[in-house]
Amino acid sequence: MRPPIVHVTAAYGAGLWVGLVVSVPQPLGLAAAVVALAAGGVLGWPGIVGGAAGVGVLTGALAEARRQTSCAGVWPPGRHAAMVALHDRAGPRGLASATVVAAPERCAGELRLLVRPGVLVAGARAVVVGTFRAPSVLRVQHVRVLRGPRQVRFALRDALARRLERLRWPVASSDCTALAHPSWKRWS
Question: What Cα–Cα distance (Å) separates residue 70 from each residue in 74, 99, 140?
Fold first, then answer.
């Protein structure tokens, strides 16, 4: 008889918890996943449930290792500096996402920046100094935009956004534009 999918989901969740909380080393997590998946091929459904647990342990171990090397996992709350590559320009509330390129603590990963709107353009590289708050927000006090070419996709996207704003079309975000022009409301 096949066990319900709930058993497989619960086994994966338990393995994921073990990988995250117990801090299983990556080689041990990989070995657990391989042994459990091999047992799944031999034992049938009970082995598949064990395989789901093994894959959960591996996933948790990889996620924990990635978190420990990211700046969000390394930095204590307080003042920090980093060189970042901005993904998108800051929205109306000043939130932007960026990838840490270099930091004195030798960490990397993604951060959310809280910066004044209009200070950073999409795709820019900048040195930022600010106050870090867990889980991953850096409130930026000082910015220095570095010279260098931006990728073409950012320049085209910014040009399109400026053009739409001149035409009085609201821009919802840097990735998509709002199609609900105020004059269209009479049709609904």
Answer: 6, 10, 18
